[in-house]
Amino acid sequence: MKVLISAILFASVFLVYAQSNSKKTIDLSQGSISDKFNEIYSKSGNYKEYKVIKRFYFNQLKKQVLDSFAQEKAALKAANQNITELKNQIADLQNQLQQTHTQIAKLQSEKDSISFIGIPVEKSQYQWIVWTLIGLLTLALLYFIYLFKNSHKVTKAAKESLSKIEEEYNNFRSMALEREQLLKRQLLDEQKKHQ
Q1: 78 has pLDDT over 60
Q2: Where in the sequence is the domain holding 88, given as residue range(s)?
Q3: How many domains, in total, are found in the chain?
Q4: What are phi and psi of 51, to 5 degrees?
């Protein structure tokens, strides 16, 4: 009988120990989803060729998987929102970059050009125009200097000619005066003779 009591006692301790092991909760709060599935699989019992999982563990795992999916979905939504915001920022920056390039091109054009008579002209063309004008003005100056010298020569020749003519005129006038005086004397002499 002692053997029977010790066998029953041994069997009851073994059953209590087995039940306490099977009632132990599985910690599904940590680890990856794959680790959680493996933990439940290893702690589940067998029935013929099937694995038997307690509903509590199944529901706990289901809740955690759904929570994980909800978190991933929220993270994906936040990431998509962030991507949209970044795309908008990129578009704004590209617009600003385009405006900056346009302004740089405009400033470069203004830097490389000069307003000449209200018309924007490139610096190289402006220099060509200025040097052409300087050349034309120099040629005009040389032409007017030539005309001035020619007119000065003509004036000098005309003055010399005038002085010669005046001299001849004075000579002619003095000769004409002398003749007139001579003729008057002769006339007076003749009038005295006839009187």
Answers
A1: yes
A2: 26-116
A3: 2
A4: -100, 135
